[in-house]
Amino acid sequence: MPMIHHVFALVGLAGALYASPLDKAEALADCLIKAGVPVDETGSTEYKLDATPFNLRLNYTPVAVAAITTTKHIQDAVACARQLGIKANAKCGGHSYAAFGLGGEDGHLVIEMSRMNKVVLDNATGIAAVEGGSRLGHLAWELYNQGKRAISHGTCPGVGVGGHVLHGGYGLSAHTHGLALDWMVGATVVLANSTIVNCSETENAELFWALRGAGGSMGIVTEFRFKTFEVPEKATYFAAPVQWPTEARALLGLTAVQEFAKTMPAELNMRLFIARRFVNLEGLYYGDKEGLQSVLAPLMKKTNATLALARTGGWLDQVKHFGGSNIDLGHGHEEHETFYSTSLYTQALNEEQLQTFVSYWFKQAKNNTRDWYVQIDLHGGENSAVAKPAVDSAAYAHRDYLLMYLLYDRVDKGVYPADGHTIMANFAANITQGMAKSDWGMYINYPDSRLDQKDAQANYWGTHLRKLQAIKKAVDPDDLFHFPQGVLPA
Ligand SMILES: Cc1cc2nc3c(=O)[nH]c(=O)nc-3n(C[C@H](O)[C@H](O)[C@H](O)COP(=O)(O)OP(=O)(O)OC[C@H]3O[C@@H](n4cnc5c(N)ncnc54)[C@H](O)[C@@H]3O)c2cc1C
Ligand SMILES: *[C@@H]1O[C@H](CO)[C@@H](O)[C@H](O)[C@H]1NC(C)=O
Ligand SMILES: *[C@@H]1O[C@H](CO)[C@@H](O)[C@H](O)[C@H]1NC(C)=O
Ligand SMILES: *[C@@H]1O[C@H](CO)[C@@H](O)[C@H](O)[C@H]1NC(C)=O
Ligand SMILES: *[C@@H]1O[C@H](CO)[C@@H](O)[C@H](O)[C@H]1NC(C)=O
Ligand SMILES: *[C@@H]1O[C@H](CO)[C@@H](O)[C@H](O)[C@H]1NC(C)=O
Ligand SMILES: *[C@@H]1O[C@H](CO)[C@@H](O)[C@H](O)[C@H]1NC(C)=O
After folding, report:
1. CA atoms of 155 and 272, how far apart (whole Å)
2. What share of the chain has pLDDT > 90, as a percent?
3. Which of 409, 417, 338, 412 is nearest to 375 (CA)?
4. Best substitution site from 118, 121, 123 to test ligand 2's pocket, by max atoms within 8 Å of Cβ?
5. Is 195 in a helix, a strand, or coil?
6. What is the pLDDT of residue 21?
7. Using one digit for the tens of pLDDT, what is the confidence trace for 150-191?
8. Per residue in 238-253, is it b (16+ CB within 10 Å) or e — as a string?
9. Coil, strand, or helix at residue 251?
10. Which are the contacts of 372, defined by CB distance < 8 A and separation ≥ 6?
11. Ligand 6 atom at minimum distance from 432 CA
C-alpha cells in the first residue's frame, strides 16, 4: 500500500495535478497559514518528532502536520482539510500500533494535539478537565499531585489519552475500576464541519456513546471530563514466574489461570505474560502483600508459580514500576519499536482450543527467535469492573469477554521481515480456528494493521457496528476523519 501511494505521488509531481492528496500540500499549507494555524516545517526537528510513528514498521507521509495549540486552530485545520477534500486525523500520543494518528496511510492532515495537555482537577467535585493532547503519565501525575486522585488506564506513560480512552483503555486497575472510558463523563468535540459540541449521558448522548469505543472516527476531542477515584493508600505490584517446561504442564497451567480469572476478586488485576524465554503472572493488588498472598494461593499451587516480586507502596510507586521512573511526559516524547502485532478477545478456551494454543506455542512460536510475547489480560469475569456495565452502554463492544490477548513480535534493530507477521497471525488464527465469528473479537487499541476495513470494523465493533455507522453518518457523512480501519458512514 505505501509503495503504491509513493508511485502516485511521483507521477503527481511529474505533471498530473492533484493526482494524490500529497499534491494538495501547497494549497493546504496556504489555507493553514492564512487561518493562522501553526504548521511543522517539513524536515524540521518538530516535524520529525510529530510525524514519526511509534511503530517504525509503518511510516506514512502526512500532507501536513498542524502543530495546533488552541481549539480554534483545530476548527480551522479541519475546515482547510474539508475544503480541499483531504482526510484529517487527530494525533495525541502517537502510540497507535498501526500509526492511526498519522492517518494509517499517506496523504492525511495530521492534527498534532500534544501541545494541548492541560490537566485541571476540581477538588470539590473530583471531576478533571483534561485537554485532548495529554499523555497517560502526565494525567496520572497531575491527578495525583492535584488531589491524590486517579482514573483507570493502561501502563505506558507515553500513550495518549486521546487514542487510549476513545477506544477502550485497559490497564492494571481495570479489573478493580473498569476501562479508562468508563471514567469519561463528558467531552468537548470539534466535528467534521468545524462545529464545537459538548457531549455526555444527557447532551448529544449518541455522540458520547460513540466516542467511548470508536472516538477516532467521530470527531476531535479537545477536552475530556473525567470523574476520578481517590487513590488507595497502598497497592502491591507483583510478578510470579511459572516454569512450564512441557506442553502438558502448560496446558494445566493455562487451564488453571483461566478458571481462576472467572471468579478472581475485584481487587486483583492480573495478566499472563508469555515471552520467548519466560512466563510470568503479573499485576497489581489493591491491598498489602499478605492479602495478595492469600488471594493468589490457590492459583500459585495449581500453576507452580513463585512470587518473585511483591512490593507494597503508594500509588505512584506502582505507576512507575509499570511505566518507568519518568512518567510526566509531554510534547516531543520519543519512543519507538519495530513490530507487527494483533489481538483477540475470547471466553475461556475449551480443552481442544487450549491444546491447539499450547501446541502452536511450543512448536511454532518458540521456534521464532525474534523478541515476541503474548500477553493475556484477565479482562472479564464475575467480579471484573469491566464486565459490570451493560455491553451496549458504550461503543466498546467486548466487555463480556474473559480474556484479552495482545500478540506482539518485534525486532530489536533493523527492518521487520516482510513475512514476519505470519507467526503471530497464525497464532491468533489457530486459537480462533473453528470458533463462531460471534465468539471472538479484536481490540482497536491493539490493531492488526493487515486487516481490511470491512474485517476491522466487524472485529473491533461487532454488534455495535450498525449503530456506529449511523452515528458516523450523522456527524461525519463525508468521512473526513477517515483511516483504513475506522467506522464508515452508513
Ligand atoms: C508502549 C505502549 C503500551 C501500551 N499499553 C496499553 C495498555 O496497557 N492498555 C491499553 O489498552 N492499550 C495500550 N496501548 C495501546 C494504546 O492504548 C493505543 O495505541 C492508543 O490508541 C494510543 O493512543 P495515542 O493517542 O497515543 O495514539 P495516536 O496514534 O495519537 O491516536 C490513536 C487514534 O486515536 C485518535 N485520536 C487521538 N487523539 C484523539 C483526540 N483527541 N480526539 C479524537 N481522536 C483522537 C487518532 O486519530 C487515532 O485514530 C499501548 C501502546 C503502546 C505503544
Ligand atoms: C486538592 O486537595 C488535596 C488534598 O485532598 C490538596 O493537597 C491540594 O492542595 C488541593 N488542591 C487544590 C488546587 O486545591
Ligand atoms: C462545553 O462545556 C464546557 C465545560 O462545561 C463549557 O465551558 C463550554 O462553554 C461548553 N461549550 C459548548 C459549545 O457548549
Ligand atoms: C506442578 O508441579 C507438580 C509437581 O512437580 C507437577 O506434577 C505439576 O504438573 C506441575 N504443574 C504445572 C502447571 O506446572
Ligand atoms: C524453526 O525455525 C527454523 C529456522 O528459522 C526453520 O528452519 C524450521 O523450519 C522451523 N521449524 C518449524 C517447526 O517451524
Ligand atoms: C495454524 O498454524 C499453522 C502453522 O503456522 C499454519 O500453517 C495454519 O495455517 C494455522 N491455522 C490457521 C487456521 O490459520
Ligand atoms: C455540523 O454538524 C452537526 C452534526 O451533523 C450538525 O448538527 C450541525 O447542524 C452542523 N453545523 C453546521 C453549522 O452545519
Report:
1. 15
2. 95
3. 409
4. 123
5. coil
6. 73
7. 999 999 999 999 999 999 999 999 999 999 999 999 999 999
8. bbbbbebeeeeebbbb
9. helix
10. 275, 276, 365, 407, 408, 409, 410, 423, 424
11. 13
- What is the C-alpha to C-alpha distance for residues 166 and 447, in angstroms, rounded to an integer? 14
pLDDT tens figures, 127-146:
999 999 999 999 999 999 99
As for ligand 1, residues whose beta carbon falls within 6 Å of it are: 54, 89-97, 100-101, 113, 132, 154-156, 159-160, 162-164, 166-171, 215-216, 220-221, 445, 483
- Joined grid coordinates for residue 116: 494541548
Residue with grid cell 494535539, as numbered in its chain: 113
Residues belonging to the chain: 490
Ligand 7 centroid distance, CA of 219 (Å): 12
Supply angle C-alpha 40, 41, 44, rounded to 5: 95
Give the cell for residue 259.
478458571
For residue 249, report the distance from its CA to the centre of ligand 4, in Å.
Answer: 6
- If you measure from the C-alpha of residue 253 to the centroid of ligand 4, how many angstroms do you get, rounded to a whole number? 8
pLDDT in tens, 267-302: 999 999 999 999 999 999 999 999 999 999 999 999
Q: What is the mean pLDDT of residues 451-469?
A: 98
Q: Is 434 left (phi over 0), alpha (psi -120 to 50) or beta?
A: left
- Does the pTM of the predicted model rise above 0.85? yes
- Residue bearing cell 491447539: 356
**Best mutation site among 130, 188, 190, 199 for ligand 3, i.e. most ligand atoms within 8 A of its Cβ?**
188
* Strand, coil or helix: 298: helix
Phi (first) and psi of residue 116, to 5 degrees: -110, 95
Residue 45, helix vs strand vs coil: helix
Kindly list the protein residues whose Cβ atom lies closer than 6 A to any atom of ligand 2: 123, 146-148
Q: Copy the grid coordinates of residue 306.
A: 513463585
**Angle between the N-to-C axes of helices 465-475 and 453-461, in degrees from 0 to 180, rounded to the nearest 10:** 110
Strand ranges in 207-317 using DSSP code E only, listed in sequence order: 220-226, 229-230, 235-242, 268-275, 279-285, 309-313
Instruction: Report the nearest-CA residue for atom 1 of ligand 5.
Output: 367
